[in-house]
Amino acid sequence: MKRLATICLIIFAMCSTAFAAKIEDSATVAVMDFGTHPHAVPIDINILNAGQAAHEYILQRIFESQKMDIIDKTLMDAAIKDANLYTTGIIDADTASAIGKILGVKYIIYGNVNDVTLSEIGTKVGIGGVTVCTVKAHIIARILNVETGEIISAAKGEGKSKSSFVKVKGGEVSILEVGTTKVTQDSVHNALQKAAFQTVDVLIGRLYGSAKK
Fold first, then answer.
1. Per the domain annotation, does 6 fall within a domain?
2. DSSP string, the chain
3. Of 5, 57, 59, 197, most Cβ neighbours within 10 A?
4. What is the structure's pLDDT at 31?
5. What is the per-residue pLDDT across 84-101, written as a single tens digit (0 to 9) for each?
6. Per the structure, how many domains does the chain have?
7. What's the CATH code of the domain at 57?
8. Domain containing 84: what range?
């Protein structure tokens, strides 16, 4: 019985360690600018500032989680600019280490808009028709311990949003053009926001032992 109890205690300790938080509460993090993954967006789709929009939504969700403290972006940008470091999208280990020393942080969060795609389904109605556009966005983010170079959590979020426009004689109504495809900008940003929020939820969940699936 004593041996069984000892084995149970060992298993419990191992499980507790496995599910323990990978980062301390209220850790201070620096959130880098998000980029757009090369070749991820088809050439006929022109979405401006997708990375910047993703970055803003990532910041918003982290702030709402109240799990981590975020360095002020204005102060961060000034310090990084003085050091002449490239901090958008994928970041190498040496740059990450330099960022950590400059900003005095142990962790940085960085990533990319992995892809933004559009699909259309059209329906004829009388003399015209209705086209429903579905925007799908994927965002990938990682949190790195700059002291060890270890990626302690990574996540990929997906967001979908739909918009529609009506074709009539003489033109189309309620649309904006993105490349060669018609879609509202609100729809694009809704997809990016949903992807960013899901990314942060999974990222933080994995860090603090309650990952969302």
1. no
2. -HHHHHHHHHHHHHHHHHTS-SS-TTEEEEEPPPEE-TT-S-TT---TTHHHHHHHHHHHHHHHHTSEEE--HHHHHHHHHHHT---SSS--HHHHHHHHHHHT-SEEEEEEEEEEEEEEEEEEETTEEEEEEEEEEEEEEEEEETTTTEEEEEEEEEEEEEEEEEEETTEEES--EETTEE--HHHHHHHHHHHHHHHHHHHHHHHTT----
3. 57
4. 92
5. 877 777 777 788 888 888
6. 1
7. 3.40.50.10610
8. 24-207
